[in-house]
Amino acid sequence: MSQSILVTGGTGTLGVHVVGRLLEAGHLVRVLTRSPRLDTPYTVVAGDLTSGAGVDEAVAGADTIMHLATDPMVMGADLEGTRRLVEAARRAGTAHLVFISIVGVDRNPYFYYRAKHAAERVIEASGLPYTILRTTQFHDLVLYVTRKLARRPVMPVPMGWRFQPIDTGEVGERMTALAAGGAAGRVPDMGGPEIFTFRELMNRYLAAAGWRRTLVPVPIPGRISAAFRRGVQLVEGDGGGRRTYGAFLADRVKPGQPVGR
């Protein structure tokens, strides 16, 4: 059944996959954005979760809200934006709020993870029907980080850190299915099909790009590093992801490309 669905973060890495799938499924999609464009197949609503401008107008009439917007660089941005969105959704009587989060946010003191966990708690205490999906790191994020580090001839590699990258398109497919269903609370975590050390991820990028770099293992102290070494960011058992990181790299990285691009 067709719904009216508001998407925050609809132009982001995950958002473009989600919006595309929602449109294919016949839903009426509107996207809250600070930089509205006119040439889109969906309705654009100018607004800003940081200030609250335009949020009530964006939420009005939406059957479901998919909250994908995030800002890992600004402390507190995700929590405050979620609070504003929840308040607007409660005023509008929104029937379903779907939120994307990260595996391990309740067990890692990294400020961004703590904000994500606090945002989860705001949603859970809101009284709104909700669904929360936690996933591991996206392929796109892992590639972005390894590309940045590869600009240096000598690359520091955190010792003991492991990751389970997942395909963004598969997460988008799962999120779209959750939006179409009823509120399900916290659903099972989603993760990629393989677990890699940080060093293995760096080597895979360098091999795909045809570059050589010196990798230097670095022991990183502190509680955040300890959490990554414990594997709080990993999904136990089958995380549901199918597309491998190698397949992703084969599509995105070509031998001979300038390093870091």
From TrEMBL:
One Pfam family recorded for the sequence: NAD_binding_10
UniProt entry keywords in alphabetical sequence: Photosynthesis, Photosystem II
Name of the protein this chain belongs to: Nucleotide-diphosphate-sugar epimerase
UniProt key word Transmembrane helix: no
Domain of life of the organism encoding this protein: Bacteria
InterPro entries: HCF244-like (IPR044256), NAD(P)-bd_dom (IPR016040), NAD(P)-bd_dom_sf (IPR036291)
One GO biological process term: photosynthesis
